[in-house]
Amino acid sequence: MTKTLRLALVATLTTAFGLVACTAGGGGSDNGPAASAKQTITVWHGFTGDNEVNAFNAAVARFHAKFPNITVKAVKGQDDDKITKAISGGDPPDVAVSFTTDNVGKFCATGAWQDLNPLMKQDGIKTSEFNQAAMDYTEFEGKRCALPLLQDVYGLYYNKQLLSAAGYSAPPKTISELTAMAKKLTQFNSDGSIKVAGFDPDWLFYEVAPSHFAPSWGAKWQVNGKSSLGSDPAWTQMVAWQKSLVDWYGYSKLQKFLHSVGQEFDPDNPFEKGKVAMAIDGEWRTASIRDEAPSLDYGTAPFPVADSLSSHYGAGYVTGTIIGIPRGSGHKAAAWEFVKFMTTDTQTLVDLANKIRNVPTTTASLAAATDLKNDPHFKTFLDIAANQYTSTTPASPNGGAYQVTFGQFLDKYESGSAASSSALTAKLESVDKQITDDLKLSK
Amino acid sequence: VTTALATGSSAAVRPARRRPGRALRRRRAFTALLFLSPWLLGVGLFFLYPLVSTIYFSFTHYDLLSNPRWVGISNYKFAFQDDPNLWPAVRNTLWLVVVMVPLRVLLGLGVAGIAVSLKSGASVFRALVYLPYLVPPVAATIAFVFLFNPGTGPVNHVLSWVGISGPGWFTSSTWAKPALVLLSLWAVGDLMVILMAALLDVPRELHEAAAIDGAGGVARFRYVTLPVIAPVLLFAAITGIIETLQYFTQATVAARVASGVTDLPGTQIPPGYPNGSTLTYPQLLVDQGFTQFNMGYAAALSVLLFVVSLVFTGALLRGTRSLTGDA
Predict the structure, then answer these.
(1) Which residues face A285 on adjacent strands?
(2) Of A91, A137, A426, B308, which one has the greatest count of Cβ atoms within 10 A?
(3) How large is the average pLDDT for residues B191-219?
(4) Is the pLDDT of residue A27 over 70?
């Protein structure tokens, strides 16, 4: 190798190492002008549909009317990947809106989104003003790095016509009732394939997910900060019930059925087409049905609960849209004014919820959402949101990895042979161990 | 006189060389650097920097949001001791390498052989075989999942005409990888083109000489065609192995589409549907880096993949020397 080439390679390697040393993290000053100063803040959000973007922009206009010195530049279609890269690159938006509550643990643990507790304390905003479950998914280990903007609430949708034809006048309230009704409502074709599913329990069937079922069994994801799938018997009961219903249908039949019906967010959605009599889904389905299947005779109700947990009937799973201030925001004071306005101004929340057809997040806005309350289909979800047993998934420093690990196990388990109760518990304990092991990488 | 002339002549032909001065050497080095700079810049920015970064990050805890923190070999220990998805992903990827690469090379060779031997319609045949390769992988995968849908797809419908109950294809743990192989075989046009060129390069007179010596078709292929096209076959195999070790797009798209689960923000979808059967090594890497924020661990997985690619390539090069006759 010539001296010149050696020199060139050394220079290149030095530059490369230099670049490595400069990579990552991105600091950024939190200083910025006072909220009263004339300024422009940038807000990134993930809304993309015209209706959603217009609703968000209307809320922004309302804010600007109240704070004419603060101009808001709202940028649509931004997801967590882009927000993360912008924070890491040191050029974040002043305010970020995310649909992924599972990332709250990471945002809080790393300080990527700023702790709002001091700002809330400074302005006298109490957590009791918000729905409790929404407070749970916006906080991690004492740091509140986000506030809830809107909620998604899950419940049971049922086809009144199909239920009536089978002799039912009301939706099921317990898992036993759900099971019996699901079997009676199911219709098979002459070749044995499923024509109409009473209730499709397949983990792959759209919104069927352990997180959405958990409140119905009162199942706890963690006890003392440790994964408790094996130690909380509620999980064993839930998984065993799901597997028994899958086996009643036949796993392969459910797979074939899944791949012969329409997609979840298409007008061919099987519930909207009457191919599924009962389904678990979010409150947004009411808007889809209004637009895509207006003649569908359906009802909504809380998802049934385990027979031994009848006092919890009325609860459900909740998640939602969150808003926060990324590290490195150059207009922290104005950004906080915006976050505070968007998450606590009752009329803005009600207006936003009305237009996007999501559930508002504060106690006051839940009470004031009269338009939504007047829709009997939607009112169910307002009630579920307000229920004391309504719960969410806990934040974790590695995002939703624990749900993915659990999901991998569940997908395999439902396609294989059922285990005895004790064997199933042992399997769940091994999933707990895996979830704990996975966390090693986050520490 | 003779001596004088000789001396004079020698001095005229070979003047005493003077070592260039330091300034001149520097100028020359600078000129050389200047000419090398586009290459150096490219290699530095797009090869050395990512490579050095990846190796460095593989020894750190790096979550994309905080500064990387040195953790020694913890990420490598986690890979070999604690990650339950690593070996299934390795097995799936190796399965694809062992099955997909040879089948693609063999089919590419077969199709190329047909293309060069066709008397008429060769251009139409070439176009028909090559066109699928031009279809974007995502679109091709979605189309295949639709065609092989066990409930509504036309493939199983046609199979039912002859009394065959088609498998679940992309929805079956057993058939998902073979279905991916079928997808890759459908788009074998790239290999057809390079192998066709190699076949056309085989000297006709060698074939004729071998035929006169009584060599049959198989012997002519073994002793005439194969040694000539061996370097191209080797190239196809090496690039095929490296591409398959990085197999990501088709497996990810097929799994997502076939599962029917809508990939909404916040939806937690286990990768590798069905039941992890299509979880390839690069998917695991991306999932760790960008979904679970374990970029340090993802970097360690990248380094391991790099080493494995090097080993594969080295072994293949060594193993094929006997075929090509190179020392």
Answers:
(1) none
(2) A137
(3) 92
(4) no
DSSP codes of every residue in B207-267: HHHHHHTT--HHHHIIIIIHHHHHHHHHHHHHHHHHHHHT--HHHHHHHHHHH-----TT-
Cα A96 from Cα A81, distance rounded (Å): 12
Contacts for A265 with CB less than 8 Å, ≥ 6 apart: A288, B262
**Residues of chain B contacting residue A16, judged by C-beta atoms under 8 Å apart:** 44, 48-49, 52-53
Tell me: pLDDT of B57 over 80.
Answer: yes
- DSSP secondary-structure letter at A417? P
Among B262, B270, B293, the residue with its CB nearest the CB of A106 is B293
CB contact under 8 A, A19 and B48: no
B266 pLDDT band (50/70/90 cuts)? low
Q: Which residues of A touch B40 (CB under 8 A)?
A: 8, 11-12
Of A156, A262, A151, nearest to A208 by C-alpha is A156
Helix (H) or strand (E) holding A332: helix A332-344
Q: What distance in Å separates residue A68's CA from the closest CA in chain B?
A: 33
Nearest CA in chain A to B27: A4
Nearest to A399 among B48, B264, B293 (CB): B293
Residue B10 in this model has a pLDDT that exceeds 50: no
Question: What would the pLDDT profile of B160-191 be if each residue is shown by its tens digit?
Answer: 999 998 898 998 899 999 999 999 999 999 99
